[in-house]
Specification:
Layout (H helix, E strand, L loop, with lengths): L2 H11 L6 H19 L12 E2 L12 E8 L3 E9 L5 E9 L2 H4 L3 H18 L8 E6 L3 E5 L2 E4 L16 H12 L5 E6 L1 H10 L5 E7 L3 E8 L15 E5 L17 H8 L8 H6 L1 H17 L10 H4 L6 H9 L6 H9 L7 H33 L3 E7 L1 H5 L3 H12 L5 E6 L3 H27 L1
Length: 460
């Protein structure tokens, strides 16, 4: 690739290539945002809300029995039947159901009726009508939890716009929809954020797991916090004196703390989104937006005649048409091999690209995904430093983590540079956290209820 062209490409990509000092600043500002969210005085105006989840314990290994889980977090949802056996064995049956676009943006009642109807079909299929099984409900949207089985939706994300749900208790809406079917009975024992489920699925086998992370359609993290630091805590201070906190860190930067690193590409992505000015950190990291950030850069390079001889296809010029999965596919090519890249370009109706074009596209993808992983690492390092335990496992799930060939290594690399000296960490894939994890939260809730009953009986 001729030197001049490469220099011009590097110049355009330079604002997406942050130095380590900038990532340290992001980490410090994230820590500041965590503390504001935890504080009674500042929570109301804090961008990062730090919601208590009311989950007070990770599994202790004694949880047993059958549990249902309902996992709603995107354009599909799942129903699962989980059987917890001795020795950490988990048996699972599950089914995926689609949510049509018209339901995603229609009345809330229609959404919950659709879920209740699919739940009924699953219960019939597995002949569970006679049982009233405990259910863990994974609801992967920003909620203000008021208890383990009470949570009000703060606002929709990920393309949902159902009316009549924001500000309402989603557990109540689910229970009412189930009651309207008159076909079966369930006992919703825990509302679970997907990050909590992700954490719990790994904690079932690894007691050092204290952080859950999602990098998929959206991004979020949860972690175990000491009750003394949770100023909005409104329940008992009995042992264990800790609670999982759902950070809702996707909103980091909505108060201006990321303005100094936002690029024109980020601003364009935000302008074209359904939730302008919100979830700015998420828009720099997650699968719903990463492909669009890359597309914005590719359009700029093409307009500057640094790609495709300045000729742009309608597809590439169309918002949302460069999917995040393309980034994973292009970066999966071996160095110097452009098989996946050429296939992607064919889908975008870009004919006869040169090897130089493919090399530039790969650089763009690598730059955008590395920035996403490093920004995420800054948040994780802030959490590890805050927890301040000798060794912590981070449970991770989500399509970006699962399918991007380098994200795991990029996270480990940058966290290692940012975390306090002496703190050890592991990054582990959570297998089906929002499903199995939700059932495990339900199992822990049942175990803790039983233990409390026994304790009360001892005092009688």
């Amino acid at each position: 690739m001729e030197l001049m062209r490469q220099q011009e490409v590097d110049e355009i990509l330079s604002e997406l290539r942050l130095d380590n000092d900038q990532y340290v600043q992001v980490m410090d500002r994230m820590t500041e945002s965590f503390n504001r969210g935890l504080s009674k005085e500042h929570n109301a105006e804090a961008a990062v809300k730090m919601f208590p989840t009311y989950v007070r314990s990770i599994p202790d290994g004694t949880e047993r029995g059958k549990f249902l889980a309902l996992d709603l977090g995107g354009t599909n949802f799942r129903v699962l039947l989980i059987d917890l056996k001795p020795g950490h064995e988990v048996r699972m049956k599950s089914k995926i159901y689609a949510i049509p676009q018209k339901i995603m943006v229609g009345p809330g009642r229609s959404l919950f009726d659709h879920i209740a109807h699919c739940l009924a079909m699953f219960i019939k299929e597995h002949k569970l009508e006679a049982e009233s099984l405990p259910l863990g409900f994974t609801f992967s949207f920003p909620c203000r939890q008021e208890g383990l089985t009470a949570a009000r939706l703060v606002h929709w994300t990920k393309g949902f716009k159902c009316s009549g749900v924001e500000g309402e208790d989603v557990v109540r809406l689910l229970r009412e929809a189930v009651a309207r079917t008159r076909e079966y009975d369930i006992d919703v024992v825990a509302l679970v954020n997907d990050t909590v489920g992700t954490l719990m699925a790994v904690a079932h086998k690894d007691s050092k797991c204290l952080i859950g992370l999602i990098i998929g359609t959206g991004t979020n993290a949860c972690y175990m916090e000491r009750l003394e630091n949770v100023e909005l805590w409104n329940e008992d201070y009995d042992d264990p004196k800790e609670v999982l906190i759902n950070t809702e860190w996707g909103a980091f930067g909505d108060d201006g703390l990321l303005d100094n690193i936002l690029t024109q590409y980020d601003k364009n992505v935000d302008e074209g989104s359904m939730n302008r000015g919100k979830q700015l950190y998420e828009k720099m990291i997650s699968g719903m937006y990463m492909g669009e950030v890359a597309r914005q850069v590719l359009v700029k390079l093409t307009k500057e005649k640094l790609l495709f001889n300045g000729e742009i296809s309608d597809e590439l010029f169309t918002r949302g048409q460069f999917y995040t999965k393309y980034i994973s596919e292009i970066e999966s090519d071996a160095p110097g091999d452009y098989t996946n890249c050429l296939q992607v370009l064919e889908e975008l109706e870009i004919m006869s690209p040169t090897d130089e074009d493919c090399a530039i596209i790969r650089q763009v993808c690598e730059t955008v995904s590395k920035r996403a992983a490093y920004l995420c690492s800054a948040g994780l390092a802030a959490l590890l430093n805050k927890i301040d335990r000798e060794e912590v496992t981070i449970a991770v799930d989500g399509s970006v983590y699962r399918f991007h060939p380098k994200v795991h290594n990029l996270l480990v690399e940058k966290i290692s540079e940012l975390v306090k000296p002496g703190l050890k960490f592991n990054v582990a894939l959570s297998m089906d956290g929002s499903g199995i994890g939700a059932a495990i939260v339900a199992a822990v809730a049942e175990r803790m209820k039983a233990q409390k009953r026994e304790l009360n009986n001892d005092y009688i």
